[in-house]
Amino acid sequence: MSDAWIEPRSAGIRAEVAVPGDKSLSHRALLLSAMARGSSRVAGLAPGRDVAATRDAVGLLGARIVGDRVDGPGIDAWRAPKKPIDCRNSGTTLRLLAGALAGRPFSTTLTGDASLRQRPMRRLEAPLRALGADITTTAAGTAPVRIAPSGPLRGADVVIDIASAQVRSAFAFAALQAEGASTIDGPPGFRDHTERWLTALGLGTRPSSTRFVIRPGAVPPADFSIPADPSSAAYLWAAAVLLPGSEIVTPDVCLNPGRTGFLDVLVAMGAPVATEITGEVHGDPIGTVTVRHAPLSGVAIGGPLVARSIDELPLLGVVAVHATGPTTVNDASELRAKESDRIASTVAMLRSLGAAAEPGADGFVVGGDGTLQGGVVDGAGDHRIVMAAAVAALAAAGTVTIRGAEAADVSWPGFFDTLNRLGR
Ligand code: S3P
């Protein structure tokens, strides 16, 4: 375990920053390229350990990756891995792969590190079984997840009761291999990258924003230019909001509506945020985001906005300390199923820096009007807690030590270097 020491910043940050590639889109681009037969181009892949897990997994299944080129064998030619596939810390790798593998005529076991093996995987069972897949989790509903041959999958209509992009994507990747069309529906707020990309590739239609019809067929090779990750850019946006005199510009960021909830929350708190759409990748919008410092007010959030900002909620906790009045997050029980129990780890992180924070059944409350003190934060083995603590440190009254800082490598290796260089 390595520690990071972060000193408070006395001056504001004014910078334009090229943020690394989007993690969610990188997983999908690698998987779709491996499912296709022929050469795809995947440029700007996310550099972190999670995406490396998907890269290694598709390699085991028969894809060849050289530079930006991914030579996919086609899913019909995927080969049976000789041992369990280790998805490491990456829930997206495990869940999306489970769906893609559900239609294969061989058995696979998907596993991961101690944190991933505690996360809920039973949510994959009902939708994949509706297609006829043979999938089993442990008695606790966790990984290792076993997928066995089941004969041809049959199209099915399912409703999933959580706004999980991973479960929806798993279902879609399996349904592509079924006999007959399938439909998925569920609550709004999820990141609809998979729906947008499969629609652009001619493999689906969208009768409404939550309903998706999957048309089985061969995934074609494609050109995927991965934009910057808004969940990574969020740490810089938060730093800009908190440090007087700051302005951060982040070009080419993925602006999928399922990913922009944190920006909407910042606006609701009073932050000046400018968003300009500059392009798209297979129907998924990309743009430049500029965020400046401003005094903030506390907010109360819940419902679909929570799903749209789910990965940024620990960071929202940090921002909320500096706002006038309390900030309340509800409808966020999914936070308990992330790389750590993020209700507990966010509250613990804030309290170790002297903030008033209370856990709730499905969220947390942060008392505003505060200043963070220096202190020692346990990173909880969770990249988002580590990086949120680093932003907290920039605006704190003393030095912050973050234990287990290497967890940042899961999504953004080099995050601490970028933070140190910013505006200097
Ligand atoms: C992801 C979906 C979200 C998110 C995760 C990445 C994805 O999880 O929290 O970091 O790439 O599909 P859920 O699908 O569990 O909501």
Write out key terms for the chains shown.
424 residues; alpha/beta; 4-stranded mixed β-sheet; 23 strands; binds shikimate-3-phosphate
What's the layout of helices and strands?
Blueprint lengths: L2 E4 L7 E3 L6 H13 L1 E7 L5 H13 L2 E3 L2 E5 L11 E2 L4 H11 L6 E4 L13 H6 L3 E3 L8 E4 L8 E3 L5 H11 L6 E4 L7 H8 L3 E2 L6 E3 L8 E3 L4 H13 L4 E8 L6 H9 L3 E9 L2 E9 L7 E2 L2 H4 L5 H9 L5 E3 L12 H11 L4 E4 L2 E4 L8 E4 L4 H12 L5 E4 L11 H7 L3
The structure holds shikimate-3-phosphate.
**Widest sheet, order of strands:** 2-15-17-16
For the residues shown, what is the average pLDDT?
A: 97
- Which geometry do the CA atoms define? globular
Strand content: 15-25%
Number of strands: 23
Name the helicity range.
25-40%
- Number of helical elements: 13
* Rg over alpha carbons: 21 Å
Structure description:
- The chain is an alpha/beta fold.
- It contains 13 helices and 23 strands.
- It has helices at 23-35, 49-61, 91-101, 125-130, 165-175, 193-200, 230-242, 261-269, 304-307, 313-321, 342-352, 383-394, 415-421, and strands at residues 3-6, 14-16, 37-43, 64-66, 69-73, 85-86, 108-111, 134-136, 145-148, 157-159, 182-185, 204-205, 212-214, 223-225, 247-254, 273-281, 284-292, 300-301, 327-329, 357-360, 363-366, 375-378, 400-403.
- It has a 4-stranded mixed sheet with strand order 2-15-17-16. A 4-stranded mixed sheet has the order 4-5-3-14, with helices on one face.
- Helix 3 runs parallel beside helix 5 (165-175) and helix 7 (230-242) runs parallel beside helix 12.
- The radius of gyration is 21 Å and the shape is globular.
- The two termini are 28 Å apart.
- Shikimate-3-phosphate (S3P) binds next to helix 1 and helix 5.
